[in-house]
Amino acid sequence: MMRNGKLLFNYLMVFWGLWFPVHAANFSLNSGTEEITVNTFNASQPDTHKPLLIWFTEGYAERNTFKHLIQRLNDEGYDIWQIDLLESYFIERTPTNIRQLKGDGVAAVLSHAQQQKRPFVPISSGRMSLVLLRGIRLWQLADTPSDGYGQMQQTVLFFPNLYNAPEKAGDAPKFFPIVSASSLPITVVQPSEGTFQWKLPELVNALNVHNSQVTLVSVPKVRDWYFLSRDATEIEKRASEKLVTDLGQWLSISQPNANRRFAPEKQLALAQVTERKKGLIAIEARPASDFSLKDINGETLMFSEKRGKVILLNFWASWCPPCVKEIPSMNRLAESFDAEKFEIVSVNFKESPQSIRDFLKQVQVDFPVLIDQDGKTSAEYEIFSFPSSFLIDANGQIRYSVNAAIEWDDEQIKQQIQALIQQNP
């Protein structure tokens, strides 16, 4: 009777989506003066042909979507170590703090993994990929594993953000020095609808400087963070379900070539993490790039046709909470000026017209919404994060930029817009 009751309980937990991986014996490692906590999840049925996965997370380990992924990887035969460095260090979870991590915690984990005498695969995503590359280099230089990678079968980066944040919107982002200093077997998984899709050639060139073996994987019709999203599309849900089997295929095709040796740069150039400027920032005037995009109704707009009035050009996405938060203040701003002299034009990043139409049923937007379906216009304007905005004068010159959400109907901002209008009465 107890056995049947236990089976029924397990069934109900699976049915209600509550069946998550169970921790094995977690352990800690010393990294200088810090202690790193390693959370372990053992395979349901161990498979000696599967490598150990070492996943450096960025604050999403408690999400149900991630727990579900870990469970499916365990069911596929993978043992997993999960590490949250910021949590181990008791550091506030900010983009700047992540970018400042030196990677010694990663190196300590990889050194311990090498001692297990089994293949392992470090994994990370987003900004944490930067810290992973730094840590791998430190481990390579300190432990000198055979051929430069030892038991490390591969490194997997999901939609990596390896850039030093630009100081202001419109500045071209630059890679941190670790990218070109790295030398390792690496697989980059980039969603086709991701922010840095058009930056992949730059990334490959940088990684090739010191002879990394780079494998690129494109996941079609999904956004960054697709397997962690709480509002995933049906396509993203299917891609998430396939990730477990896809990972096995990616690892099998990206094995280091025979006789390949990896040697990272020994002297790593120093780079200060950029502090992004806030608010409306005056910039040296430069021409706004022209573009032609369709709105949600399929009507084409040529941006140069707006010449002759001051324009607020706003790049945004409906999945970006700060983008949505600033829309009411933009509506109020538009009402404050003569439509013949000032207009707001928004460019949505890679969402379908139907999804935006659905969004507009819930959120009032009193200005045109254009669709940057392939992301090329956003790339032309060097959009690094959302929202990003530009104030463009009547002569088509970019005069101000904003790299975050703001209250657009602030009196000081309205005065600056009025000053631009008066320059071309």
Give a quick precis of the structure:
The chain has helices spanning 2-15, 64-75, 85-89, 95-100, 104-115, 128-143, 178-181, 200-207, 234-253, 321-325, 327-335, 353-360, 376-380, 411-423; strands spanning 27-31, 34-41, 52-56, 80-83, 120-125, 155-158, 163-164, 174-175, 185-191, 213-219, 281-287, 292-295, 300-302, 310-316, 342-349, 369-372, 388-392, 397-402.
- Overall morphology: elongated
CATH level-four homologous superfamily name of the largest domain: Alpha/Beta hydrolase fold, catalytic domain
Distance between the termini: 86 Å
Query: What's the CATH architecture of the largest domain?
Result: 3-Layer(aba) Sandwich
The strands making up the biggest β-sheet line up spatially as: 1-2-4-3-5-6-9-10
Number of extended strands = 18
Number of helices: 14
Extract low-pLDDT stretches.
1-19
Radius of gyration: 24 Å
The CATH topology of the largest domain corresponds to: Rossmann fold
Largest sheet: 8 strands, mixed
Instruction: Estimate the mean pLDDT confidence.
Output: 91
Task: Please state roughly what percent of the residues sit in beta strands, choosing from under 5%, 5-15%, 15-25%, 25-35%, 35-45% or over 45%.
Answer: 15-25%
Keywords: Cytochrome c-type biogenesis, Disulfide bond, Redox-active center
Domain Thioredoxin: 282-422
InterPro entries: AhpC/TSA, Thioredoxin-like_sf, Thioredoxin_CS, Thioredoxin_domain, Thioredoxin_ResA/DsbE_sf
Protein name: Thioredoxin domain-containing protein
